[in-house]
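In response to the reviewer comment on reproducibility (Comment 2.3), we provide here a single inverse folding case reported in full, input and output, so that an independent group could reproduce the run without further information from us. The structure tokens appear first.
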């Protein structure tokens, strides 16, 4: 399920290989997550500092000038603000149309991440619902809204060449099996129900637009996702052995690498693209093992690269494309300003480019041993967090080629150069390949 390129144009396909005359495209992109927010009349006035469509357009122009081909964005307004779509569609849709038109004119491609906070929209429309209603209750208002939006989006933009692929929403898997009050007074929905919700949303998107693959938008599974799904009920399900729930302390603790792979594959069973979001662990994760993937013996950061390697392994096993839909340094220094803040994103870019492609401008993550030991193979798409981020410019470090615009852009020239190098290498390697599997060997 590759992204294919011919005469400078990209398209993602659900087939196993590109058509004759096309070549496989792999490349590093960015998250311009607030592109639609800034263009919408529903965006809160408190965050509208110099916000206008002219700002969106100039920011997209800077993105294209930097040689980047695609961006991921939130194709839904934040929380209850998205009720504008249901209440006043004539105000909601024109900024989205214009955003995709400008992207097309610039030769850019977009990955719209639809929405997942449908319970907040339902509440704004008068229904007291939670995320459990969205995922577990097929007759809820939240589910009805999600169905309608997926259908409208895919049908409206099925013929837009600037849409690269569809994404159901952002990181809904992180709610699975979490305790109250995240989903109201009850424990949050389980992963099994989430898979079925994803299946329905994917089918709706494919019905409206049969030409494009569907991704989940999921984050990297929580370190204890398998345990929380399988080890909570007493007695245990028949297919679960007590020994499987005993690793690092059982429920609430940490999955094995094998259990992690099982979760990645299971969560994406109905989808075309495997999505993970990858960040270095919290600074205190080593003192709280349940926050750190796998064994802490090699250090949490090394295990974050192992998690990425395992996700790539799972994608290859399933014959699916891997999209690292978010990655960056430690919050809030996602892209800098210090070189140390950029060590993890540089490691992800090294991983995407493949073995033998290491940077001399960044510290090595545990001497590079985690990357080498886990035999990294190149993967298809990545989107660093984040590009420009005008709506959150006072709160986080982001990337922009003009570092003089704002202090939050300091240091981003190093990562921009790294992305350019990665894209150049991937372009050269893929020049004569048409089969996606061949591009990964």
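Designed residues, in position order:
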């Amino acid at each position: 399920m590759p992204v294919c390129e011919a005469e400078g144009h990209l398209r993602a396909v659900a087939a196993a290989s590109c058509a004759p005359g096309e070549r496989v495209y792999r490349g590093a992109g960015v998250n311009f997550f607030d592109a639609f927010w800034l263009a919408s009349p529903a965006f809160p006035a408190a965050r509208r500092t110099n916000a206008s469509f002219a700002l969106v357009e100039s920011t997209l122009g800077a993105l294209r000038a930097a040689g980047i081909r695609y961006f991921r964005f939130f194709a839904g307004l934040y929380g209850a603000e998205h009720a504008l779509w249901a209440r006043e569609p004539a105000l909601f849709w024109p900024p989205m149309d214009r955003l995709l038109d400008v992207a097309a004119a610039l030769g850019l491609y977009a990955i719209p991440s639809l929405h997942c906070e449908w319970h907040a929209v339902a509440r704004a429309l008068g229904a007291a619902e939670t995320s459990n209603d969205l995922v577990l209750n097929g007759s809820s208002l939240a589910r009805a809204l999600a169905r309608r939006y997926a259908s409208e989006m895919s049908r409206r933009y099925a013929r837009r060449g600037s849409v690269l692929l569809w994404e159901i929403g952002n990181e809904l898997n992180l709610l699975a099996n979490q305790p109250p009050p995240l989903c109201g007074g009850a424990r949050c929905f389980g992963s099994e129900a989430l898979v079925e919700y994803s299946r329905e949303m994917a089918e709706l998107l494919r019905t409206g637009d049969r030409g494009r693959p569907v991704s989940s938008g999921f984050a990297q599974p929580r370190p204890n996702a398998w345990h929380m799904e399988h080890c909570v009920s007493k007695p245990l399900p028949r297919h679960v052995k007590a020994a499987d729930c005993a690793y690092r302390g059982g429920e609430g603790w940490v999955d094995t690498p094998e259990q992690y792979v099982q979760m990645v594959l299971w969560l994406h069973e109905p989808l075309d693209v495997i999505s993970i979001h990858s960040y270095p662990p919290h600074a205190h994760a080593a003192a709280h093992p349940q926050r750190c993937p796998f064994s802490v013996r090699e250090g949490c950061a090394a295990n974050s690269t192992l998690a990425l390697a395992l996700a790539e392994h799972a994608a290859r096993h399933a014959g699916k494309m891997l999209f690292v839909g978010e990655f960056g340094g430690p919050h809030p220094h996602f892209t800098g300003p210090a070189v140390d803040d950029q060590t993890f994103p540089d490691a992800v870019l090294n991983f995407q480019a493949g073995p033998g492609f290491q940077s001399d401008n960044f510290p090595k993550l545990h001497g590079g041993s985690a990357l080498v030991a886990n035999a990294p193979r190149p993967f298809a798409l990545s989107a660093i967090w984040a590009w420009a981020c005008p709506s959150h410019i006072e709160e986080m470090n982001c990337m922009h080629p003009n570092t003089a615009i704002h202090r939050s852009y300091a240091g981003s020239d190093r990562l921009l150069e790294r992305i350019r190098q990665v894209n150049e290498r991937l372009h050269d390697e893929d020049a004569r390949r048409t089969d996606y599997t061949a591009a990964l060997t």
